[in-house]
Amino acid sequence: MERKIRNLASLGTKNFTVYLDEVSLRNGRISKRICIDHPQAAAIVPFVSDDEIVMVRQYRYALRRETLEIPAGKIDRGESPEECIKRELVEETGFEARSIKWLYTYAPAIGYSNELIHLYVGRDLTKVEKKIDENEISSLETLPLEEVLGMIRNRKIIDSKTIIALAFIRPLV
Question: The domain spanning residue 78 has which CATH number?
Answer without folding.
Answer: 3.90.79.10
